[in-house]
Input
Amino acid sequence: MDNAEDLPPRLFALRADLTERIPCAPGDATVKAELGAMPLAQLMITYMSWVDRLIPPRQRSVSFAEGFFAKRLSDDQMRVIGVIGNMSAKGDDFTPYLSATVQTRGYTPKQGSRPGIRWVDGGRGHKDLALNTMDAHHFHLKPLEKNGTRLNGSRDLIWAWVSRDNIHFLMLGDHNSCNDGTLRAVVAKERLLAGWDVKGLSPSRSTSSLQDRLRLARYGVMAHEEVEAKVVPVGFASSDGSSFFHVTHVDKVMRVLRDWDSRLDTSHGRSELATKIGFPQIDIEGAKWGFLYGDFCLFTCQNIALGIVPWRR
Output
């Protein structure tokens, strides 16, 4: 099923669509060919690793981590937090406050013999590490100018969890927050408050150093944190750097394709699927599979997106 020559037409079209949509750096034909040669499931994971860096425009409530305002913030910092909060409430597009590279670096081949995970940015992947292991997005305090740069740069970052209906501001930090342990500490505390501590497991008498835990996270090893004498898991990434949540999402998509793709060739199968997803009145003959941001959908001939497997954002 993963061999391009053996893929049924709808899955072949899905592969071609994802290969075309993922921005590559460098964007030459060789890199695109490498991307397109991936097994379909791996290609979808690569797509999710890129598209999850974007934030779908959607109205969301705003909340703050415990201690977010413990450190005094400047008037300008407070202003930007207010701007982003208002944008969230209105469902505005956050793209100007995201990294410029989200539009250009969705897949980057591993450089030479550099050890470790193949990160999207082709380097050490600090922001990918934060998103893939701690589910943390970051916002710049300065929006992008029309020329794709930020006036006088942008050192400060707002780190946040983003769901379909909420943005939870974790901390005001900088580009080094995912390396110096400050973001990790906040995430661990917030996960404890959310009930993510491992019940019945006591902290170890001998603990590894923070640097060791950060290093393990880069290789997909889940290292926990100890908060208030409780064990809290922090890193959720596989050995290739993929997010655990991306992988499980793609698993669900693959099950849908396995169970339903061939059945779309019959009128009975189409009727059954349309009823199952809550759109019995819509004709899905000629429909194709695709993604709308992270949501896996069935697109009708009229380009109506019918949600099949919703993404967390």
